[in-house]
């Protein structure tokens, strides 16, 4: 009887890389896996959970031998043509400015349904029915390519385990990822271990009574679903807190509407800017802080931008290193892999055991030497800004004008404007390299883009 050999894996700044020794990789970002409450998307948005996925923001992580997977609920031929133009335009921008090739060898669009005329071939784009998670795993199994597990949840692990033999280590990583993505469990674990955390009160829908709030101290609080992300269900929105009377009224409304989450928490409201520390927890209690950044939170409580620069990181690195050293030594956790801590002041407010909206910072920093080979040996990354709310034009002729505008901005200032992916149907995420401290060239670019 032949022994079954577990598939190899490695821990990277993008997540868990499965079969990293294989040529080419499958790049798919099923961000819906960050919602550990499977009902939340339907309760609050009336959307199936997998409809939260797009994947276009993952193009910057691809190479010329890779397969990029995206999701669209219903695909039309018009969408496919726009997608083809968007992918080409972004690859052209990156090639000219950085020398890097991010046009994937193959693009696959997972979907629930598609128009009949979509059967006509568009170069290097194929359709596959199913969710983004299902399509990514089946594609990796069929192609033999490596696979990036951006969010190594139990859902991802189960899907993957049905196709290839997996190391027992990955089962533990998946379970601990689930634990830390549950905001109630994560904050309780860190509090018990002596981490500096915002005071957090956990609740469950099945046992909740408004009278439970009577024992809480006066002050302002923030309501969060325990299984949510990206500000979904946050109350009040933005960075404000609410007094208990207002919180009680909100919870009563959720109960009446039937939208009270399975698990939720009330967290003390802390004033001040939000910042994040991202790093890796490695075997043998080793660890590495990858980057420290400032966050911009919009009126809906979502991450809409961030900034990395050496002075800001240096001010907070010692404290971040203490946190990661303590995490790595925490025997009861056992987690390995990518993790980000969100903080206000020196108190942790959230734990994200996965890729986040700030992950392009890690990725660009890892590419600095490659950028030097194209731009010049004197090139250094001094500042990185992320903007998740950029609207690119959808018409092909105007998209070419946007490309020219990006080139002109670089010629004028040396600033690199690098889309993570150009979304043909919505807002795009962009990384800006070496802008001025006042974001002058980003603001100038955005103003001119709006005039196209």
Automatic annotation (TrEMBL):
It comes from the Bacteria. This is ATP-grasp domain-containing protein. It comes from Algoriphagus oliviformis.
């Amino acid at each position: 009887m032949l022994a079954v050999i577990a598939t190899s894996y490695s821990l990277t700044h993008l997540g868990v890389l499965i079969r990293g020794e294989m040529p080419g990789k499958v790049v798919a970002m099923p961000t819906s896996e960050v919602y550990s409450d499977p009902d939340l998307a339907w309760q609050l948005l009336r959307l199936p959970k997998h409809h939260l996925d797009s994947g276009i923001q993952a193009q910057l992580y691809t190479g010329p031998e890779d397969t990029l997977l995206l999701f669209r609920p219903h695909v039309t031929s018009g969408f496919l043509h726009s997608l083809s133009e968007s992918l080409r335009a972004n690859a052209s921008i990156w090639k000219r400015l950085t020398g890097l090739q991010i046009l994937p060898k193959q693009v696959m669009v997972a979907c629930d349904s598609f128009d009949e005329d979509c059967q006509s071939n568009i170069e290097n784009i194929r359709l596959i029915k199913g969710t983004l998670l299902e399509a990514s795993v089946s594609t990796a199994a069929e192609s033999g390519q490596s696979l990036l597990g951006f969010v190594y949840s139990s859902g991802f692990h189960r899907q993957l385990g049905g196709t290839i033999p997996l190391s027992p280590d990955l089962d533990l990583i998946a379970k601990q990822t689930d634990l830390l993505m549950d905001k109630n469990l994560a904050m309780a674990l860190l509090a018990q271990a002596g981490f500096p955390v915002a005071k957090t009160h956990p609740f469950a829908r099945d046992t909740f009574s408004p009278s439970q709030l009577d024992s809480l101290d006066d002050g302002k609080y923030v309501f969060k679903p325990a299984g949510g992300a990206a500000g979904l269900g946050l109350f009040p929105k933005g960075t404000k807190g609410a007094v208990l009377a207002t919180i009680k009224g909100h919870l009563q409304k959720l109960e009446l509407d039937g939208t009270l989450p399975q698990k939720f928490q009330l967290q003390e409201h802390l004033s001040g800017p939000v910042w994040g520390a991202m790093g890796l927890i490695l075997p043998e209690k080793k660890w590495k802080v990858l980057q420290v950044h400032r966050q911009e939170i919009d009126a809906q409580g979502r991450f809409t931008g961030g900034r990395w620069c050496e002075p800001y990181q240096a001010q907070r690195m010692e404290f971040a290193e203490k946190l990661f050293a303590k995490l790595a030594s925490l025997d009861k956790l056992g987690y390995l892999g990518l993790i980000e801590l969100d903080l206000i002041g020196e108190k942790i407010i959230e734990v994200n055991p996965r890729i986040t909206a700030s992950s392009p910072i890690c990725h660009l920093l890892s590419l600095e030497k490659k950028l030097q080979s194209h731009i010049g040996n004197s090139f250094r990354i001094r500042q990185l800004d992320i903007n998740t709310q950029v609207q690119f034009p959808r018409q092909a002729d105007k998209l070419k004008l946007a490309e020219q505008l990006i080139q002109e901005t670089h010629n004028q200032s040396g600033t690199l404007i690098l889309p993570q992916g150009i979304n043909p149907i919505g807002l795009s995420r962009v990384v800006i390299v070496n802008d001025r401290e006042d974001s002058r060239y980003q603001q100038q670019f955005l103003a001119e883009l709006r005039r196209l």
